[in-house]
């Protein structure tokens, strides 16, 4: 099954540029330009308006792109099912995961998977939550690992692990002395103690910022001073330097490296934040993709068991 035509037009629809689309397709721009002109002549209509150097879909182009996307998804399902018939020896998996989860979550999982399926290509796209969901919706990703949820009936959520949003302070901050111990090694801090501080916040679309805003609202705090940046590790390092109060997910904090010591505390009602492996219910997953998902869940289960054993000892 070969859908070269559809892949070419989809690349143009994605990149809006002959040059960039040609680079993605590994063809020359003149080849792609001639292909498009020939196709539009055959169809008797323009698929793209040329606005300067940008290619913008016409109404006919939008219809073509919508249909081509469905055709490519069917092609991928066919290839996946065919791969299962030959024991899943070859194939390709693309999934979305946040950059800060890759360092501790990916290595053991991919190490085991590549031993079992050495000829299956694995592409891990390090993406924020929203682009990851869009990639899943458009069939570009087989699954994503996310800590937010979209109420879409087409999506299936498989629980992976739970995390907590913590407030991050420099070790010498006076408020650290007022934290309450919830359990061995787990401390809670009243955010109201920090209402006059400068807060180091992420971009509004980042999941960490969404959860942070919720906790600040619950504490009745409207930041008077703030610093905005997207990098979570940098935010924690800035907190260590005494530049402000940061917020971060507990699993991230534990895997960061610090030049200066920080303290981190649970906040609010200590509600956990669920992380899930998200798939589309209507997308066929070959046996090797299901195996990769299982390895993720199994790796997290083993990590929890080790942490529980360490806490008891």
Keyword list:
313 residues, alpha/beta, Arc Repressor Mutant, subunit A, D-Maltodextrin-Binding Protein, domain 2, 3 domains, five-stranded mixed beta sheet, 10 helices
Question: How is this fold's topology laid out?
Answer:
Layout: H1 4-15, H2 18-25, H3 29-43, E1 48-51, E2 54-57, H4 59-85, E3 91-97, H5 99-116, E4 120-126, H6 129-137, E5 143-146, E6 155-163, E7 165-170, E8 180-183, E9 186-188, E10 198-201, H7 207-218, E11 225-228, H8 232-240, E12 245-249, H9 250-255, E13 262-266, E14 273-280, H10 287-312
Parallel strand pairs: 3-4, 3-5, 10-11, 10-12
Antiparallel strand pairs: 1-2, 5-14, 6-14, 7-12, 7-13, 8-9
Helix pairs in contact: 1-2, 1-4, 2-3, 5-10
Question: What this model shows, in words?
Answer:
- This protein has helices at residues 4-15, 18-25, 29-43, 59-85, 99-116, 129-137, 207-218, 232-240, 250-255, 287-312, and strands at residues 48-51, 54-57, 91-97, 120-126, 143-146, 155-163, 165-170, 180-183, 186-188, 198-201, 225-228, 245-249, 262-266, 273-280.
- The chain is α/β, with parallel strands linked by helices.
- The strands form four sheets. It has a five-stranded mixed β-sheet with strand order 4-3-5-14-6, with helices on both faces.
- Strand 1 (48-51) and strand 2 form a beta hairpin.
- Helix 1 crosses helix 4 and helix 5 crosses helix 10 (287-312).
- The radius of gyration is 24 Å and the shape is globular.
């Amino acid at each position: 099954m070969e859908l070269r035509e559809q892949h070419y037009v989809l690349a143009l629809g994605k990149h809006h540029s002959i040059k960039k689309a040609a680079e993605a397709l590994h063809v020359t721009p003149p080849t792609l330009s001639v292909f498009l002109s020939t196709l539009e002549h055959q169809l008797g209509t323009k698929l793209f308006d040329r606005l300067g150097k940008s290619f913008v879909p016409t109404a006919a182009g939008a219809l073509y792109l919508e249909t081509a996307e469905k055709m490519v998804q069917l092609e991928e399902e066919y290839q996946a099912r065919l791969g299962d018939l030959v024991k899943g020896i070859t194939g390709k998996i693309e999934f979305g995961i946040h950059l800060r989860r890759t360092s501790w979550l990916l290595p053991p999982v991919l190490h085991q998977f590549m031993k079992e399926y050495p000829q299956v290509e694995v592409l891990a796209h390090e993406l924020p939550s929203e682009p990851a969901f869009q990639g899943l919706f458009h069939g570009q990703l087989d699954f994503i690992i996310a800590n937010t949820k979209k109420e879409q009936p087409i999506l299936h959520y498989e629980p992976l692990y739970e995390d907590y949003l913590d407030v991050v302070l420099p070790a010498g901050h006076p408020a650290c002395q007022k934290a309450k111990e919830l359990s061995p090694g787990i401390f809670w801090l009243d955010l109201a103690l920090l209402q006059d501080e400068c807060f180091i916040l992420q971009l509004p679309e980042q999941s960490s910022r969404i959860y942070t805003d919720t906790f600040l609202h619950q504490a009745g705090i409207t930041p008077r001073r703030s610093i905005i940046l997207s990098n979570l590790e940098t935010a924690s390092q800035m907190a260590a330097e005494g530049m402000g109060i940061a917020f971060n997910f507990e699993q991230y904090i534990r895997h960061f490296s610090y030049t200066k010591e920080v303290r981190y505390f649970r906040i609010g009602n200590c509600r956990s934040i669920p992380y899930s492996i998200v798939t589309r219910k209507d997308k066929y997953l070959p046996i090797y993709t299901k195996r990769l998902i299982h390895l993720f869940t199994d790796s997290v289960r083993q990590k929890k068991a080790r942490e529980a054993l360490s806490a008891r000892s």
